[in-house]
């Protein structure tokens, strides 16, 4: 399967560098480029890429606002946004995830890391380390969704799926979950995929956010690994 990518950055040299790095992967193709947030949204709607590599600071509409528009577009449900920035701070991570981004990378990422990131996000996985997940969800936990009935929203899950979601929200990978529950990594991944589908969220990152917003998990909760 070929993964299509849109590059959104206001610096031509940055876009050229990322395009060159991605061209070396046989399973990745760069469909187009954008130098502003508005152009990124328009181009995403026209080309419908699998992944958008989005800069934060751009003229006019910034990358965060552009991400919100892309995520909210029903025609771009399969499109995933990875935020690329030179600023590795909790503020940017939190804002990007709250806007609907599926991942976060700094621009000094290694070539192999960039290509791996595109593949991971295109497959619907989270692009955050467990340590970053734990930091950010602590902030998200203090922003409950207005009017959300957590119990009703989670009622569609089985007891095992609820347990899996709690472990995902604590920052565990599929392999970690498999070891903790003594199941295979494939079984763990299947449970996560089913939970994502049942809850109607876009990906693993949004699953973590929902777990905290609905009160399924709370910061510092005892009993989590």
Automatic annotation (TrEMBL):
For this protein, the record's InterPro entries field holds: CheY-like_superfamily, NreC/VraR/RcsB-like_REC, Sig_transdc_resp-reg_C-effctor, Sig_transdc_resp-reg_receiver, Tscrpt_reg_LuxR_C, WalR-like
Q: Which stretches make up the HTH luxR-type domain?
A: 150-215
Which is one Pfam family of this protein? Response_reg
Q: Which domain of life is it from?
A: Bacteria
CDD domains cross-referenced by the UniProt entry: LuxR_C_like (cd06170), REC_NarL-like (cd17535)
Database matches in Gene3D superfamilies: 3.40.50.2300
Q: Could you list this entry's UniProt keywords, alphabetically sorted.
A: DNA-binding, Phosphoprotein, Transcription, Transcription regulation
Domain Response regulatory, by residue range, is: 4-122
Q: Give a yes or no for keyword Calcium in this entry.
A: no
- Residues crossing the lipid bilayer are none
Q: Which residues carry this modification: 4-aspartylphosphate?
A: 55
GO molecular function term, any single one: DNA binding
What biological-process GO terms show up in the record?
Answer: phosphorelay signal transduction system; regulation of DNA-templated transcription
Record-linked PANTHER family: TRANSCRIPTIONAL REGULATORY PROTEIN NARL-RELATED (PTHR43214:SF24), TWO-COMPONENT RESPONSE REGULATOR (PTHR43214)
- Could you identify this protein by its name? DNA-binding response regulator, NarL/FixJ family, contains REC and HTH domains
């Amino acid at each position: 399967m070929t993964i299509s990518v849109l590059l959104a950055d206001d610096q031509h040299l940055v876009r050229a560098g990322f395009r060159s790095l991605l061209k070396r992967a046989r399973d990745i193709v760069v469909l187009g480029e954008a130098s502003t947030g508005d152009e990124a949204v328009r181009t995403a709607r026209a080309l419908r890429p699998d992944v958008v590599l989005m800069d934060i600071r751009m003229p006019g509409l910034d990358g965060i606002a552009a991400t919100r528009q892309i995520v909210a577009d029903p025609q771009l449900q399969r499109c995933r946004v990875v935020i690329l920035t030179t600023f590795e701070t909790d503020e940017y991570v939190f804002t990007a995830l709250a806007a609907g981004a599926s991942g976060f990378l700094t621009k000094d990422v290694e070539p192999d890391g960039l290509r791996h990131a595109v593949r991971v996000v295109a497959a619907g996985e989270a692009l955050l380390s467990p340590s970053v997940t734990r930091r950010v969800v602590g902030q998200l936990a203090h922003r409950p969704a207005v009017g959300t009935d957590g119990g009703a929203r989670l009622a569609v899950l089985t007891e095992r799926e609820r347990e899996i979601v709690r472990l995902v929200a604590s920052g565990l990978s599929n392999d970690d979950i498999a070891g903790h529950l003594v199941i295979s990594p494939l079984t763990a991944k299947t449970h996560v995929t089913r939970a994502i589908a049942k809850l109607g969220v876009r990906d693993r990152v949004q699953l973590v956010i929902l777990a905290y917003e609905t009160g399924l998990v709370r910061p510092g909760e005892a009993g989590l690994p």
